Structures are given as C-alpha cells and as structure tokens.
Amino acid sequence: MEAGILGCRFGLSSVCKGPMGFDPRTLASLFSSESDLSRRNLLGTIAAAGVTAGLAATAPEAAAQDAPAQELPKDPIDLEVLKAAGLVAGVDFTDQHRRAILGSVRNSRKELNGMRSTSIPNEVYPAMLFQPAGKQPGTSKEARAITGKIKDLKVPESDDDLAFLTVNELGHLIRTKQLKPSDLLEKTLNRIKKYAPALRCVITLLEDQARAEAQKADREIARNYYRGPLHGIPYGIKDLFAVKGAPTTWGAEPYRNQVIDTDAEVVVRLREAGAILVAKTSVGALAYGDVWFGGLTRNPWNPKQGASGSSAGSASGVAAGLFPFAIGTETLGSIVSPSQRCRVTGLRPTFGRISRYGAMALSWSMDKVGPIARTAEDCAIIFAVLCGADPKDPTTVDRPFNYRSIPDLSKLKVGILGADPLDEDDVPNDLLPAIAALRTAGVMIKAIQLSPPPAGVDTVLTVEAAAAFDTLTRSGDVDLMKGSLWPPIFRAAMFTTGVDYVQALRRRTELMQKFEREFGDFDLILAPERAGTALITTNLTGHPQLYMPMGLNKEGKPFGCSIIGRLYEEDQVLAAAHVIQQAINAHRLRPEMTEVLKETP
C-alpha cells in the first residue's frame, strides 16, 4: 500500500501533500522490514501529522538528513522463524512476502508482549458479545413455575428416605411446618460428612454459614413469612462461583487458596429465595473433566467410575442424596454429561438466561449456568428464581418463563433424532418410553435430521479458554494441574491465528443459521442420551437442552434422553420432560450407598 493512499484513507491531508507534512517516502519507510517503529507509534505519528504540519514544514531538512543511523537490536524472529511459523499457521508465503512482513511481525510481537505485561482479570469480557440467532419470544421479566399440588405427604421416618425427596416435596413439608429448615440442614450436613469424602464431591463445606441461614429461615417461617418453594432448602454450588468468606478454587491447584470477596449473582438470587448454601461442589480443574486437586469425583451408582465433568460434584452430590439440588455450568457438555453419568436431571438453559457474574469464565461466548436436580419440575422451580437480566452480566436477557406442571402439549410437534452416540456410555436406541409418554399427551412426533457441526468451529472455545488463562499458561503454573488436559490445549491455542478465530466465529454464524433451518417447524427435539453431536451444536448455537434418566433398559444398562428446545423456551422443555418423568418414575431410583462407603480414602 502506498503511503500517500494510506494517509488519505486516514483523512490526513498533510500526509498526502508531502511538502506540508511527512514525505510519502518517509511514511512508506515505517512499513519496511528495517523499521523498529511499532504500529502504535505509527498511528501516533500519523495522528500527530495533522496537528504538527506547520512545525514540520519549518524544520530544516538537513537535520533529518544528518541524523546518524540507529542499529537495530538483534531480534530472534527472522525469515526462517517466519517460515516455520507459517507451517504451523497453515499459510505458505514466498521469501519476498516474508521479507516484506518481517518488520511488522517483530513490531506486533513487541506490542503483544507489552499487552501481556499486565494480566487481565478473568471476569473482564471481550468487546464482542455473543447473542444466539433464531426465533425468539418477546421481552418479559415474567418468570414463574406453577407446580402440581402435593397431598398427604408426611415427613419420612427414615433420613435416607428424606434425603431423596424432591425440592417440591421438601418445600411442601417446610411450608406446612412439618419440617424445620434447621432440622433438614442438620440431616443434610450429617449425610454430606458421611458420604462426601468417599465421593470427593465437596471441596468446601459451609457449615457455619448454612446454620445461620437455616436459623433465619426457621424464624421467618415461624412468623408466616414464606419466601417460596426454595425457602429452607439446602443446595450445593459448583466451585466456580464466588462466595464471600469462602475459597473459590475453580478445582485447580494454582487457585486452591483463592478467595474472591463477592457473592456470585446466582448465590444472591438463591439466598433471596430462601435457599441455603451448604457446600461448594467439586469441579474438574478449570471446568474440564471430573479430576480436581482433591482427586477423582466418583459416580454414586458406580463408585469405581468418575462422575464425568465438569459439574462433577454437583451431579454426584444430588445423585447421592447429599443435597436436593445443585448449580452447575456448561460450556460443552458440563451439565448434561455428569447428569447422564450420575442419573440425575440437568438443565442447560439458553445462553444468557442466567447471570454468570461471579463465576469463572472459560469461554465468554459459550458458558451457561443451570440447575441439576432430581426432576424437571425441580429444575423449573430453581430456574424461575435464577433467570432474568443482570446488569453485571451484559449477555443476560429478560425473556418470559411460564412453567405449568399440567401442560397442554397437544399442539407440540417433536422431532425424534436418531442414534448418534458420543461414547460407550450412550445407549442409543431406547427412546420408546419417552415417545409413548409424549404420544399419550397428544404430541405430534416425526423424525428429524441435524447436520454435525463444521470442522474447526470448536476453535472458538479453545481460543477463548486459552485467553482466559493466558497468564497462568505463560507463568508455567498451569503445569501444577497434574493430569489435566488443559496445559497442552492452552499452549496449542496460542498457535491459532486471529484470522482463524474470526473465521471460526463466522462458521458459528453459519451453524446457527443451518440449525434454525433444520429445526424447521418443530417445537422440541427428543434425542437419545446426550443427543450425540447435537450436544456440541446446541452449545455453540445457545439452545437449551435437558437430560433426564429413564432407568435401566432390558440389558440392565442405565439410559436416558435429552430434550432440545427453542431459544428461551425452557418452559416447554421442562413441561415435556415432566410428562415423561411422571409416566416413567425413574427419578425415584437410588444408588446403593454401602458401595460408596467401600471407596472411602
């Protein structure tokens, strides 16, 4: 590009004129491989040209001509390094091209090193915010869950029976004053202390804080101040969320002693609803897998097996009856996958439905927050409290949510997705019980086909994750996470070009458009297990997905199904899931906890 043209494009007439400011040849030299001026210096010089044009015109030309030439410091980036880097980046330039860009690459590296000299806090968003594209309901702050009425329920004599009641049932016992929150909490604490060490599903037990909140709930309910169906209900939260006065470890050794002096918005909203935070649950290090600095989180149904991740402790704890519900997060399967492994119900909502303020960022454009519980109805109760816009999280939105336990599903059209197993855990052909329940409810059912996500689109996740933990990687502390797959992923992502990242974002746009076309006029999609590659697709498009267990098949293998919904239509997803669960009743099954105790470290 000629210097005069560049100056004109910046609107700097003095650059174009030559005699009144910069000589075009001088400006051109700024782009040569022999210049050590950075692009920032270049832009500053160009900007100054318009202001100092008069001074430049009066300066003696001899002064510039007589100035001694400066020797450039030796730079490790040379033509051979560029050639090797081109192989990594997948670009093939000629020697002439490489000579032309050498100075620019060196200058860019200097600027980037300057940028990296100060770390960026994890919670700082990029300037680009992701927004799901597709059919969307109107804006509304309305959020409510109308559940079925419970009759003749009494407090079970056995604490084990009490531990496996649903959120809705426990709420009924508390509201009718058959059960005090403080009594429920003590039973919960006892159970956590008994089984959590074997399962390795709890990182921090918040015993004192929980007792104070339970006593407060006792007093409020005694004077008939009832906050709602979560009042007095204990819960666990994935240790990616900040809680004042408690460590927030992110499951990773480098952050074992980290304390963040704030409460995540999810914690605030649940506290306002009267729920009692009792434990921070285990999370695979930096939200990958089920291995954290305390070891492997175990599956209560098979204690020799990991709970899957990364919401490992949340799913394991709910499955074991340690708390009635827990909060998880998902970027690429981290609610759905452990819910499938541990046979609990997990909802990954539409991107932007629930605030992530105070939660660790892994991928700013893909992270979501959702509940893990025994039933879809429990998830509806929790979701109604959590959903809605939060000014502290710019991706959040207000959309309507109206769940009813006795829905009219007769107008729904559900697409049945064929078998597409992700791994050996998936039982791909057992949808018949769910299909039968939906047909009884009057749902129209037809087959549907979805295209797999395009190659390379997951670059979005790896690059954003590497950016989120760039300082950790460059310091070498990332290697403190023994057994984690993150260190090589973070390092490899550094060789992905900015162009490739933007191209992956564009492929993501194409994926959203194609998914919307293939979704067509269906209201929901029913799929085996975790929905195969549709799990990946919907995490990229931002659509909601729920997993629920359906018991054991004829071969004695656990199986379940996923329901994928339209953007912001979690109420339909949960209503359909509730109909299936009421027909199958698999959520009443429990793991054999004596096997769990055999695994005590």
What this model shows, in words?
The chain is built from 24 helices and 17 strands. It starts with a helix and ends with a helix. By secondary structure, it is an alpha/beta fold. The strands form 4 sheets. It has an 11-stranded mixed β-sheet, sandwiched between helices. It has a two-stranded parallel ribbon with strand order 1-12. Helix 11 (181-199) runs antiparallel to helix 12 and helix 18 crosses helix 20. A hairpin with a 2-residue loop joins strand 5 and strand 6. It is globular and about 85 Å long. 40% of the residues lie in helices and 13% in strands. It has 2 domains: 3-116, no CATH class; 145-597, Amidase signature (AS) domain (Amidase signature (AS) enzymes), CATH 3.90.1300.
Instruction: Count every helix, treating DSSP H or I runs of 4 or more residues as helices.
Output: 24
Q: Tell me, what's the shape?
A: globular
Compute the number of strand runs. 17
CATH top level of the largest domain is Alpha Beta
Overall average pLDDT: 87
How much strand content do the residues show? Answer: 5-15%
Radius of gyration of CA atoms, rounded to a whole number: 29 Å
Low-confidence stretches: 1-67
How many strands, what sense, and barrel or not for the largest sheet? 11 strands, mixed
